[in-house]
Amino acid sequence: MSFPLDYEHSAPMTFGGAMPTMKSFDESRVVILPVPVDRTTSYVSGTRNGPREILEASSHMELWDEEVGVDVHGVGIFTLPAMELPFGEMGELVGEIRRVAADILSREKFLVTLGGEHSITPPLVSAAAAAFKGLSVLQIDAHADLRDCYMGTPHNHACAMRRSLEFAPVTQVGIRSMSTEEAEAAPGLNTKIFYDATMRKDPNWIDRVVDTLSGPVYITIDVDGMDPAIMPATGTPEPGGLSWYEIVALLRATIARKTVVACDVVELSPLPGMMAPNFLCAKLIYKILTYQFAGK
Amino acid sequence: MSFPLDYEHSAPMTFGGAMPTMKSFDESRVVILPVPVDRTTSYVSGTRNGPREILEASSHMELWDEEVGVDVHGVGIFTLPAMELPFGEMGELVGEIRRVAADILSREKFLVTLGGEHSITPPLVSAAAAAFKGLSVLQIDAHADLRDCYMGTPHNHACAMRRSLEFAPVTQVGIRSMSTEEAEAAPGLNTKIFYDATMRKDPNWIDRVVDTLSGPVYITIDVDGMDPAIMPATGTPEPGGLSWYEIVALLRATIARKTVVACDVVELSPLPGMMAPNFLCAKLIYKILTYQFAGK
Amino acid sequence: MSFPLDYEHSAPMTFGGAMPTMKSFDESRVVILPVPVDRTTSYVSGTRNGPREILEASSHMELWDEEVGVDVHGVGIFTLPAMELPFGEMGELVGEIRRVAADILSREKFLVTLGGEHSITPPLVSAAAAAFKGLSVLQIDAHADLRDCYMGTPHNHACAMRRSLEFAPVTQVGIRSMSTEEAEAAPGLNTKIFYDATMRKDPNWIDRVVDTLSGPVYITIDVDGMDPAIMPATGTPEPGGLSWYEIVALLRATIARKTVVACDVVELSPLPGMMAPNFLCAKLIYKILTYQFAGK
Amino acid sequence: MSFPLDYEHSAPMTFGGAMPTMKSFDESRVVILPVPVDRTTSYVSGTRNGPREILEASSHMELWDEEVGVDVHGVGIFTLPAMELPFGEMGELVGEIRRVAADILSREKFLVTLGGEHSITPPLVSAAAAAFKGLSVLQIDAHADLRDCYMGTPHNHACAMRRSLEFAPVTQVGIRSMSTEEAEAAPGLNTKIFYDATMRKDPNWIDRVVDTLSGPVYITIDVDGMDPAIMPATGTPEPGGLSWYEIVALLRATIARKTVVACDVVELSPLPGMMAPNFLCAKLIYKILTYQFAGK
Amino acid sequence: MSFPLDYEHSAPMTFGGAMPTMKSFDESRVVILPVPVDRTTSYVSGTRNGPREILEASSHMELWDEEVGVDVHGVGIFTLPAMELPFGEMGELVGEIRRVAADILSREKFLVTLGGEHSITPPLVSAAAAAFKGLSVLQIDAHADLRDCYMGTPHNHACAMRRSLEFAPVTQVGIRSMSTEEAEAAPGLNTKIFYDATMRKDPNWIDRVVDTLSGPVYITIDVDGMDPAIMPATGTPEPGGLSWYEIVALLRATIARKTVVACDVVELSPLPGMMAPNFLCAKLIYKILTYQFAGK
Amino acid sequence: MSFPLDYEHSAPMTFGGAMPTMKSFDESRVVILPVPVDRTTSYVSGTRNGPREILEASSHMELWDEEVGVDVHGVGIFTLPAMELPFGEMGELVGEIRRVAADILSREKFLVTLGGEHSITPPLVSAAAAAFKGLSVLQIDAHADLRDCYMGTPHNHACAMRRSLEFAPVTQVGIRSMSTEEAEAAPGLNTKIFYDATMRKDPNWIDRVVDTLSGPVYITIDVDGMDPAIMPATGTPEPGGLSWYEIVALLRATIARKTVVACDVVELSPLPGMMAPNFLCAKLIYKILTYQFAGK
Q1: Touching partners of D (3+ C-beta pairs < 8 Å)
Q2: Between 20 and 30 A from F267 (CA), which of C46, E62, E72, E251?
Q3: Is the pLDDT assigned to residue A177 strictly greater than 60?
Q4: Quick one: closest CA in E to D71, which residue?
Q5: Spatial distance between the Cα atoms of F191 and E240, rounded to a whole number of angstroms
Q6: How far apart are CA D100 and CA D94, in angstroms?
Q7: How many CB atoms lie within 10 A of CB A281?
Q8: Stretch F38-65: mean pLDDT, rounded?
Q9: F106 CB near a chain D CB, below 8 Å?
């Protein structure tokens, strides 16, 4: 957008808002891709508003990280416009997401995708697995999402990780809801499950999680992996789940010990009038960027 | 549901709640069919909650109609359980809705279907047209819904009346939103449009609407046909629209002059904490039943 | 409800929704009794909506329990219709609740009652104490509810445990709000109080709680016993309180060491648009059933 | 409340807020009495918050009336503190309301009572009828409230006008909901009903309403008498009802032609976050005061 | 924003969303300027979110106008980024708004400003009056906004029209709230007031309003000028006010008979979860553009 | 307010509501001063409603403290009316707050101020520092609030502690958000920062915090210092933060070891329909009073 006027203004749909250092796409090391996929019939509610609210919230966040003692935004964070949803069939949409993600990854960007439903994750994993040999996936989630088919389609969000397993092994953290069908299928799949009810019994559970990851790592965060106390804004908010400092510690350890190549944050379904969950998502993403780029 | 206990209880998912006269399916002249079709990913919001909230509201409504001076519930109002949504593809679901509706109509019931999205209307019209020769359709709606295809599917709610036209001619009332594509297609279709902006200029507009209807009549009410002042609980609430007394007068005149065989009320997307729109839908349906069965 | 049609449908007011195994009342070991008692003047809000929202939420829950590794729903969970509120006087209602509960317990069912106000608990305890010699009560609650009379009636929810003490001794857990009158009366009553502010100082507090229970056990859960972080949907949300894993551990230990005969979950007052508290109640009840019936 | 400090402050629980002219009780011609009766179990919601929200809203309203061209607040508007609800039984509460109202009326004040439920009206009418010979009542309401007994008590809000008829004849305006029992009883009662569905057919309907009133007049306004479009904040919001200019015109005509001695506004059940209905109630009351005291 | 990827995407902060014809600033005849100033609004707050929600809503609106039978978006509608609020003092901000507006008007654009508070209007009127000799202002509003100073500043929104009068005469429509001070000052000011309570008594009131306007016209719409039934989302929602068809007819007549040069829509304070008011604002603006550019 | 009637009533804008012992200003040891200043808060707004909601909530709280085993309200808690906001410029308002606070402190009252924005704290600290030699400040907050100037004013809430440092040294607890500018300035300021991310690593962190305080202590609590799980009702809810038992333990230790002379609770921005955060603030204040006055 170019125009011949000069005045102070923000770019409200940019992650971080009006940051001191705004870089071009080519100069930026981070690319934010909003993918507001959600099969709702109206524009009132649902995960389709997740990306918009995360970006809006991010413009109210400080860019300094007091834990690490650094402000990383200068590496360049470029926010792409939201993908349109041009298809009725999820199958075609999946192909398009894969194509766009592959293009971004081929330009050596750190890709952060904002959902939308969890059904956008398989094509992202597929693109990452093609770009990075030996990729493994860290999934933070309340639900195993290991159904082979649901509601008549293999692309339902309840099948997201079953589809992702076609491209890379998965480590699942915070799991506390699965069907009997999934429970029976899990042992035969290339997935390691850390159940929320028991994983904290080992004080080194974070290290154990990271130990299971191999090669480059893709991180997918279904926000319902966190405690509904801090994340009520999601479709099926399961009691239990990760606290803020648990998820932050897990991400820090993963980034410290592994090469993380891309991530997504999905299933935020904003609650009208309640900003805390949206703001948390914005800070969570900036925490990932801080750990990833501090000192670089 | 049978159990060997005896105590006072309501049947909360029954239209009208715990009415003095509860009749069996066979004895009932009216059958309520909830069809909560909505492509949402979670159970929080959307038109999928429409039928539930209409039924809940209906249990708080009085059964006497002070305008006509009658209580018609004794004709028997039987509420079926909500149809499950077993398919990923709208196409298959459409077939199932048609089959169930045809079965009910074949038993000489007055069928009232509760949506859910407007995409459930074409199979209902199809079933009614097969059962009643020469059927015409009265549609109350803000949107023409005449797109041939939308979001990659011919079964989208934006195509509801284009599909319905394959089975019967349609009279559209309250229209105040349509695309350029629809505006161009409309003259070639078997539809008569009463635009909200102009229809009241003729004080006899209601008679003119009824004049366009021929043979038995199916009525489809998209709740957004009404003024958002009284009906804010819908996906795209267009300013303008029918007032309560306008829609009631139109329904009264239609039922008085024509043989109405079935109807649906769709696109209610309940607003959390606001009961008025849900209650209005319940009363609107009972008004239809009152006009239909008073004196019978 | 019988009807001559065949289609897939759920029973939305059934705990667990459309479960694979639906058993008759006689075959079921568990009976769910909704008692939506609440003195509100309208249908908009309050604890009267608690049972409805718990049942609705329960239909979105998985039936597998990943902690115990079992799906217990096959023992049969039968949901009765909600009790009507036929009386103006709480005194009469109390008698009716007692009668119905006694009938259910006499049929060797595990009774789970859904409130509604806490004032429904005394007749439930009364019925259980009559059926099970030597009964004791485990109460999870923020409030002692030990007033002898409140707002002019001995049946107010603020008197719920004072009334219950007429039938059985009580162990109170999570208490963090009481009046000076109650504080003075407590030492003379047959109750053991575990104050929320201090009970966790003993790492074995759960065992100490269970130690105080004798004979068969009735469990009453006022949802405000939990932390408002996870349970904001209640009338007087007191800061502090049990976390999800604390309440689950307490229930597991109680069921493991004692014979639990019935329970209730009361005082959920749903917040419009926020599903997490409703969903938590549904899962809490299913956790109790899982612990109670796993391996049986 | 007296204190030895001097600073600018408002009296937020005073009708009109910090008005230029604040008069003592004795000097004031108008007395506002909040009676937040509501049988709810918690403080979250319901008509108990009606008086508080009307007073809060009233402090944001202008004191000039542009229609009449006058600012009447100088006659003195004194707001009493809210009555406590000291009894469990409505019967005792009714006696106390009558006693307090009688005391105020004996001091030649214009009494404006803020509800709370409609069940507070009978004792107010009783006190007014005792003070003013030949009193009649103007009721604006969606519901006839003519049940003889409801939920086991003759003091339920559904019986409010049946009880009031024991003290004075009633004219009912805006009625559009009644039970079969009420419809049968009405002809035998000393009440004239103007049904909402038909009353506007006579362009002189307002004069006809006022014609039915005799002697001094008490006005009771159940806010659900108005259209839910402008008054969604009530327990059972019936479609139809009076518009703002209709209710204002009716009040103006009544005050112009009759001697109005007191009034109440009841059944406002505030919707969280929506100020318009609360504000409307504040302005409605100030309109009554303007018509009553302009030129005096 | 430029990037080397190709995919379908919308520009969510563009009025009209992803329109078929997107023109550059220079080619566009319409310029949308969001000015989310929110500093002194009272009672309910949040006008800073008004522009964002209007733009979001506008992307869900059809571009065809069925009343006029035209789709005008092809004249080019260019949405500028929102002005930042760089100053603590409203005085400085006022100067900046004037400078930017003057720049846009000098480029022969039809300027549509989205507020924010009404305090942004005076600098917009000032810029328009400088650009167009003999300008007059049409104000649609519940409040006269004629205070000379409020809360210690002459730039408060309660002073918006008093300030605007320094640049052009004003015609005020829908007025139904003013202070005694304003009522006394009004006769001495260059303003014509059409009071909401009385203006409809003349069936030709719209013509009479337009008759008062001279020269080029600036239109300022405070959304609270409309009926709270359709516009509850504003700080002080006064009962009464213009209906949708009244405001649309007034705008149509004004544009038909006068040369309108710019307009603003201010004081939308979105209600969380309720889309209808936001959507109405979007359609209102598009109605203005349709009347302005149809046939051009 | 005096009036010649006798009936039971509460004083709803009194902290604690209708307490058994109501003392005069002179007799009371505690004075509650509501200061609903809300002018520059960003993102989500409404701190002006904080005092009102805290007072309302406080009337539903029990007066007995079960942890300490005492009911302290008998020392006298006098609630002043809310300060009006008479000025456009924050600078003048600051002077007025200081004057009133100094007056109250000179009367040997324990002053509890209810915000409103954090910008009210500097004049309160200034008054306390003048009254109590050697004062230090304990700040519980998510934000450092150390900016020298923000939005063009030194009185913005983002500058609250930078201003307070002009009067006393500050210890900051729970900090987890600060700008790069603040991070650079902090080492040169007379402040000790306990970062939320790291402070709990020392199990004696509370003692270490108290050790840093010298002389009499003023406590300022920005509610966003607490975890958004229990305190979502604030403008920028930062993840992390103090739990209920952490903040209570910190306050207990501070009061036990130091002489606390006054405190404030600021930045509560109530969420419509959600009472838990308001209720928490009321209990937090009563906890402070209990610790302060138990045994006195």
Answers
A1: B, C, E, F
A2: C46
A3: yes
A4: E180
A5: 55
A6: 10
A7: 28
A8: 82
A9: no
pLDDT in tens, C5-17: 888 886 668 899 8
Q: Which helix (H) or strand (E) holds C50?
A: helix C50-58
Q: Which residues of B touch E61 (CB under 8 A)?
A: 177
Q: How many Cβ contacts (< 8 angstroms) between chains C and F?
A: 58
C-alpha atoms less than 13 angstroms from C-alpha of F292 in its C-beta half-sphere: 26
Cβ-based contacts of B69 with chain D (< 8 Å): 183
Nearest CB to F63; choose among C176, C180, C271: C180
Count of other CB atoms within 10 angstroms of residue B106? 11
3-class secondary-structure state, position D70: strand
Percent of chain D whose predicted confidence (pLDDT) is above 90: 79
Task: Sort out which chain D residues have CB atoms less than 8 A from C85's CB and list them.
Answer: 151
What's the pLDDT score for residue E86? Answer: 58
Q: At what angle do helices F244-257 and F276-293 cross, to 10 degrees?
A: 20
Say which residue the tokens 């805006």 belong to.
Answer: D174
Residue E52 sits at the chain F interface (C-beta within 8 Å): no
Three-class HEC string of chain F: CCCCCCCCECCCCCCCCCCCCCCCCCCCCEEEEEECCCCCCCCCCCHHHHHHHHHHHHCCCCCCECCCCECCHHHCEEECCCECCCCCCHHHHHHHHHHHHHHHHHCCCEEEEEECCHHHHHHHHHHHHHHCCCCEEEEECCECCCCCCECCECCCHHHHHHHHCCCCCEEEEEECECCHHHHHHHHHCCEEEEEHHHHCCCCCHHHHHHHCCCCCEEEEEEHHHECCCCCCCCCCCCCCCECHHHHHHHHHHHHHHCCEEEEEEECCCCCCCCCHHHHHHHHHHHHHHHHHHCCC
**Does the distance separating the beta carbons of A151 and B87 come in below 8 Å?**
yes
Question: Which phi and psi angles does B58 have, rounded to 5°?
Answer: -60, -25
Among the partner-chain residues B179, B197, B228, the one whose CB lies closest to the CB of E67 is B197
Which of D64, D67, D284 lies at the smallest CB-CB distance from E180?
Answer: D64
* Helix or strand run (H / E) with residue C106: helix C90-106
ipTM of the complex: 0.94
3-state SS, A73-141, equals HHHCEEECCCECCCCCCHHHHHHHHHHHHHHHHHCCCEEEEEECCHHHHHHHHHHHHHHCCCCEEEEEC
C-alpha to C-alpha distance for D90 and D92, rounded to whole angstroms:
6
Question: What does the pLDDT average to over B70-90?
Answer: 85
Distance (Å) of CA B264 to CA A86, B52, B101, B269 = 30, 15, 11, 15
E177 to D69: CB separation less than 8 angstroms, yes or no? no
**Mean pLDDT over each residue of chain E, to the nearest integer:** 93
For an interface test with C, the pick among D37, D38, D39, D42 (most C C-beta atoms closer than 10 Å) comes out as D42
Element (H, E) at A265: strand A260-266
pTM of the predicted structure, to 2 decimals = 0.95
F199 Cβ partners below 8 Å, 6+ apart?
F173, F174, F205, F209
DSSP secondary structure letters along C274-296 = --HHHHHHHHHHHHHHHHHHTT-
pLDDT at E88: 58
Pairwise CB contact (< 8 Å): A156 & B88: yes
Residue type, E112: V
Chain C interface disruption, residue of D40, D49, D84, D268, most C CBs within 10 A: D40
Cβ atoms of C121 and C158 closer than 8 Å: no
Categorize the per-residue pLDDT at D42 as very low, low, confident or very high, splitting at 50, 70 and 90: very low
Instruction: Give the DSSP H or E segment for D244.
Output: helix D244-257
Give me F26's structure tokens: 């002179």
Whether D46 sits inside 8 A of C41 (CB atoms) is: yes
- Spatial distance between the Cα atoms of A157 and A171, rounded to a whole number of angstroms: 17
Flag whether residue F137 sits within 8 Å of chain A, measured between CB atoms: no
